[in-house]
UniProtKB/TrEMBL annotation:
<feature type="domain" description="Ketoreductase">
    <location>
        <begin position="174"/>
        <end position="353"/>
    </location>
</feature>
<dbReference type="Pfam" id="PF13561">
    <property type="entry name" value="adh_short_C2"/>
</dbReference>
<protein>
    <submittedName>
        <fullName>3-oxoacyl-ACP reductase</fullName>
        <ecNumber>1.1.1.100</ecNumber>
    </submittedName>
</protein>
<dbReference type="InterPro" id="IPR020904">
    <property type="entry name" value="Sc_DH/Rdtase_CS"/>
</dbReference>
<dbReference type="InterPro" id="IPR002347">
    <property type="entry name" value="SDR_fam"/>
</dbReference>
<dbReference type="GO" id="GO:0004316">
    <property type="term" value="F:3-oxoacyl-[acyl-carrier-protein] reductase (NADPH) activity"/>
</dbReference>
<dbReference type="InterPro" id="IPR057326">
    <property type="entry name" value="KR_dom"/>
</dbReference>
<dbReference type="InterPro" id="IPR036291">
    <property type="entry name" value="NAD(P)-bd_dom_sf"/>
</dbReference>
<comment type="similarity">
    <text>Belongs to the short-chain dehydrogenases/reductases (SDR) family.</text>
</comment>
<keyword id="KW-0560">Oxidoreductase</keyword>
Amino acid sequence: MDRYQKFASSGLGRQLVRRLGLPNPHPLRRDAALATPVLVGGASRLSFLKQLETGSAPHGALVFDASDISSVSDLRQLHDFFHPVITQLGPCGRVIVIGRSPDSVAQRALEGFVRSVGKELRRGGTANLVYVADGAEDGVESTLRFLLSGRSAYVSGQVITVSAASPTGTLEGKVALVTGASRGIGEAIATALGRDGAHVICLDVPAAGEDLSKVANAVGGSALQLDITGDPARLTSYLLERHGGVDVVVHNAGITRDKTLARMDSSLWDSVLEVNLACQERINTALLEGDVLRAGGRIVGVSSIAGIAGNVGQTNYATSKAGVIGMVNSLAPVLAARGATINAVAPGFIETKMTAAVPLMTREVGRRMNSLSQGGLPVDVAETVAWFASPGSGGVNGNVVRVCGQMLLGA
């Protein structure tokens, strides 16, 4: 429970926050509705932008298509559009900049602009950049709907690449596998995918069987008690025999065994690398070599901010989570050739039973050191996974999206 956020929203708390310049976490909107009205500027090369509800201030979202920016002088267009209206953005507002390719000087400059805007926004606002490759214009709707909705509440300062066109559709009738599904983030992911129509196979170790069954029953899915560090043939055989294959695989299972490197024995190192990385590699290989992942399939890894910025006492964990990012980078072209995708989420401070056990001061630093001045929820990670898993996200491949409220330090 975030008692500080509750206090900061009280009458006395609001006064102290203003006077002392303390962090001021605004309640986040997490529903599926798009932020409206939308003010659109720039090239407007995307037909989806013309479908958005427009209107007068306060604006729910500011969207600028910077695809035509090709020189440093063209970057003035950002100032000309945003300067008069940025203060007219409503609570939990959305800023989205659309680019074409980060290969040019001017287009790469968009990243610094968006990340800085994200740190200037208040009242739960977020800012993100979407690079849309030439020919991929019809694959961007899923991404823009996600970023404009409350489902992206804890995603800010991110750069997303849409590299191909994509069909629309839902997860209705699809089969999704979620590892580590008995509680926390895994449970939230299973719930989101089940809500979107998938039959969810909830997997966890036998020791978590009771909780696993409750989750599977709640989402109308199946429970599979299995240790993923074993032979992946057991898993692939199950998927083929029971379901004829799988459409979505979410590698959520993971463990921590924290010690500083000087105090970490080899067993602590080996166990974390095995569960968090090595077994995922083996499962992916088995899925692809056995044609278990169906056409249009989705693989989603769960990395961590620790894998990007590092963390004291987590050399093993950070190594494994950086490896997940490497797995995304190496497999993205392989999956693309099959008409499939692989992406990863990198959560920051998420309110779970594990983080609730963190010492108070460490926990408060984790909560406040981001642009939204608060911790995220398991549903924030789950909604990002559900966006990756959507049939409409076929053009989103090889991305690592941080679900961290835009951490201020280290990443």
